[in-house]
Here is the input.
Amino acid sequence: MTDSTKPSSSSRRRFLQQSAAAIGGACALGLGVGLYGGQARALASTALRPPGALPEEDFLAACVRCGLCVRACPYGTLKLAELGEPVPTGTPYFTARTVPCEMCEDIPCVPACPTGALDHTLTDITQARMGLAVLIDQENCLNFLGLRCDVCYRVCPVIDQAITLERQHNPRSDRHALLLPTVHSDYCTGCGKCEQACVLPDAAAIKVLPRPLAQAKASEHYRKGWEEKSKAGGSLIGDQVKLPVRGLDEKAAPGGGEP
Amino acid sequence: MSANTAKPRQSQALRDPTAAARASKGWWRANKWLLLRRACQLGLLGLFLVGPISVWLQRQGLLGRAWWPVEGNLASSLTLDTLPLTDPFMLLQSLAAGHLPEAAALLGAAIVLAFYGLIGGRMYCSWFCPVNPVTDFAAWLRRKLRIKGSRTPPEGIRRWLVLVVLLVSAATGVIAWEWVNPVSMLHRALVFGAGAAWGVVAVVFLYDLLIAPRGWCGHLCPVGAFYGQVGRGALLRVAAPRRRACDDCMDCFQVCPEPHVIRPALKAAGQDHPVILSPDCTACGRCVDVCSQDVFRLTTRFNRSEL
Here is the structure.
């Protein structure tokens, strides 16, 4: 009895030791991978995802990095990130300043995605939200200097909706207008044509940024008085109290006194 | 592996494990399965490269139209615009990370699972994986340079790593193994462009060469461990039907990437039939090649006859 228990207890000990080493080693490796992943998941702000890409945190759960979207893109816009680039390795992205998205009507990259990391419900390219153009350098933008460059406005595939030219008085000459390229987030797809076309050397004055970086959000409880008023068909709190203004009692306020 | 042999041990260390087979069977037969595997690996890579090369030829004006027989890479691919194939281990991580993939990826993974489950689980490793030539080269060089040191990782770590990788995927919401996976990195590097992926491949090579013999494919890689479990009941197996002719030269143990799988079949240790049923066996057929006595053959798991 004692003879037979001795080797079995020592072999049991060896088994437990080996298992503990294997489990410990696997956990250490797993922890390393997890921590490295936490560091490496940051996406460079110049890298834009293909149309229909899920929000970044969902995207990294869904994208298997197969490159089928890259192959489907007829313009060579998309690339798979190589190890060492500031984009999670193997995931697809494009750099607007180099090759922007041409906004194909049939969006071939989206149905090519086998996993749905690119959302297959996106069928209208104008609904894509790859990023948001921001006129980031107002000091060097030619239109802000009072010239008529307008290139970003002209190349915009959603012209007059995603980018409009807003006329303003030019205080420098005091007799001309400034026509300021203005991006509207409701319409901008983030294709990057404006950034690519910007005539400035090297960096563009207008850049497409990832939406979470470019956009703030109004607090949930904020209400715009003028919107609420037109919705309700009249002021919700009664009309404004008319205060006497000495000497100007009979004159209407400029702009009608609306808020 | 135990050296149950009458020959002096020293001669094994200095012995070239392929020499005896080459002398008795000739060069071609002594390398048959190795050459078939290399052809298979190159052919697979070639299929993925036809598209990019045809695009290049088209740009040179040498070809009217580009042709893509296979698009994508080993993670997920589309063959002839109809057949989807997806890496099931990657898809499992994606599921663990909380994403329900589209039907194409699920179907592709099911096809791959069915193939390796029926034919041979770790045949993926020896017949298709792009890392295999790298670690085979490391093992060959290790033998040539007679590098002795061996610090192999704990037994069974790769199977735990499968589980841990799935847990890390669930915890971080990312396909976790893709941060480091040299298999997909190397294949992507070959088909799409490399970046620093060569560094990762070099690390695997040097690890196998200098630290642990057959360390990556034989001990650490969870992709291989996963396919091993998939192919537990797979059909295609290596067997030792002529094991009575074994002259204990140990050549097969020298070249086998998973030497522990041979003994039960060859020496009837713990089983009576001569079929290697261990899920670790990659069915690479190198033992068939190097055996001068023709002890081994590739057959099905049901063929348990002895010759």
